[in-house]
């Protein structure tokens, strides 16, 4: 070869190919199957890994440069937030419930994604997806960490933040998110990528990070808004990875199509069930609202989702199986979840409340066909109980869905007056589900879902044996962090501090 | 109503999160490293067994022969979490960018003696494939290791290895355009000097014990390769022969090795001091791998220096490695 | 036809970028929401480096978009000169 040849100017695509694709080699001393033992067992056929299209072509130098800039901006904002008592800028302390739920449930999910993407970044047999997944892995640990750092300042002043690590593994509602990520991580590499990269990132994270974070800003929480938007800017890369991955699988072999379809069906449903918590956050926990869950769903679910599935139709992919059930549930789920959280508020490490008069007006306007008819009467009943010196609690333990782990509190898609409840018998045991979607997921892989750790039954077993107080201690459920917002220390402190800093 | 939130002084309820209080007490405010690293991985009530290996747990400390009572003892002395890691690398990246510009604008490659360029081509450019293997190996450790303080630096280390492979690729493009990379790949695949290393890396990519991979890749192989190639051959031999330009372009590698070996040594020291069993396992891995990789690197060194000097340089690197092992409490 | 979109953080740096996008996509619709700005269009949207450079009066690397990008929708094609978003239906 000719040393000192003047280098040609390479375009970005060619340069990126040389900097990543070209690094790998075809092993000849060992069999590929020994190096990539898990790449076949799901039945996905890949004939040519080099057909993988890299969506964003970031080499490490550019990655370090731009990510460092994002980090500098982010930490400047949360440092200022901490130094200037930024927590007192939030609209009111009800808002904190949303970010407590976020830290307890979503941040551990970010961490799980980090580990999961490291695994698939090692298990895929092509260097293109390897590098893309590794980059997502390092981004995801960023998200977990920036979230913990943002919450750290709130933890100094409010209840419900300090035990998130223990609560991640022990509380009933955090199990909803953890079972989702555990489910993805215990699946094979291709299914993991559909679960997180495609269904969660592409179809669903916009619903979590865009309108909710815009709402955080609107409610004066620049720390949360900033980690949200800063994270979502990485998600833009991740979503594109998810979409590229699905196109890659579909283009490699027609036999992959039914497998991918099955995963889309499953993970779309799993994701929508998980996001019912976000629905409650948006409709009930933001004191000032940017948009309703229904409006967010129309933009990021219906409009964007339809665009995506119209695009994928050319491969023979159909919209997810339970799409219609999700659509029918949108006007109901936030109310159902919030009523559930409210009646089990002795067992949540955040506060809940009954909607105020102005909340009720807003909910009526945003949910004209459902709120007043089905949910307002129940809220009014709870409000009346409170006014009579009572409290609206349900000390019966909820029956949890074997698949999504939410309490079975949802209604039939076509009859909002009927609680939905499904049962399947498997090897002599009866399993309960909140919906057709969750029952379907179970029946595809019963041997997996029978393993699910269900927080409620475990409370009845050794060593707790039904001792509610012992269980609450075990799950770090302190009375100061639970229960009615109106009676909470958080509310009293927030109002006291706000008074100290306010001048008429 | 006006709010002036900056003036008020209000009392804190909690100094820190409970899991950090349990570990470090609450006398001191925890560092951002501690907040970002300790107890982030799920510990119990994991829902499902992996479908890819049902005999394993989703996070499984038993994937390794090394046993730790608390994997969070393996802290990173650099205290890297994403932000500190990224800011550090961004700074180094800026220096490297200006190094590349300097070499380019002063035409340093053009003016370099041919034998120096030949060594750069034959020895350095094929190494980008070795960095790819190191990237994969560290990704495995991050994915399957136990406890965030041990696994988190491995994803950084994986990305660093990718970065190094890319710096080497840029060097190749500077000295011989795309043909440089093609020739280097040909060497990596076929030439006798590289086959023992390529074979060893393919073997290592089949190992599934995350700590074994960590030890053999980050301690043994890198602990021989970087002192041999970057500290001795590039920074001494090539510089003496008029190859300072090459040394400027491998500055990242030299500094990175010095920085990251503190971390690697500290992990080994902590594991070794945990138990006699750990110590025995580590000694067995290091002893066999050090001998093996020393012989593997001999023909690689031979690409740059004559036979007996290669022997000498390789055995110096081997001694240096064993010194590090001794300082970490092994082989005593 | 389906809508593609790009959402940027609302700040000084992105003002000019949004203006550049508007110039290159006369049919695009710009929606302002708290802390963010969304630019959407039917089927196709292009973000061009040259136009941004004219707006900001300095060199611009397309990858700088990452710093202020919140999210996007559509099939992505990025090279040194432009970022294109499309839906094929």
From TrEMBL, chain A:
Coiled coil: none annotated. Keywords: Monooxygenase, Oxidoreductase. Pfam families: Phenol_Hydrox, YHS. Residues 482-504 are annotated as: Disordered. The keyword Nucleotide-binding does not apply. Residues 411-453 form the YHS domain. One of its GO terms (molecular function) is monooxygenase activity. Residues 488-498 have a biased composition (Basic and acidic residues). Signal peptide: none annotated. InterPro entries: Ferritin-like_SF, Phenol_Hydrox, RNR-like, YHS_dom. The keyword Transcription does not apply. This is Phenol 2-monooxygenase. It comes from Alteromonas alba.
Automatic annotation (TrEMBL), chain B:
It comes from the Bacteria. Keywords: Monooxygenase, Oxidoreductase. Transmembrane segments: none annotated. Signal peptide: none annotated. GO terms for molecular function: oxidoreductase activity, acting on paired donors, with incorporation or reduction of molecular oxygen, NAD(P)H as one donor, and incorporation of one atom of oxygen. This is Phenol hydroxylase.
Automatic annotation (TrEMBL), chain C:
Keywords: Monooxygenase, Oxidoreductase. InterPro entries: MOase_MmoB_DmpM, mOase_MmoB_DmpM_sf. Gene3D superfamilies: Monooxygenase component MmoB/DmpM (3.90.56.10). Pfam families: MmoB_DmpM. GO terms for molecular function: monooxygenase activity. Belongs to the TmoD/XamoD family. This is Monooxygenase. It comes from Alteromonas alba. The lineage of its organism: Bacteria, Pseudomonadati, Pseudomonadota, Gammaproteobacteria, Alteromonadales.
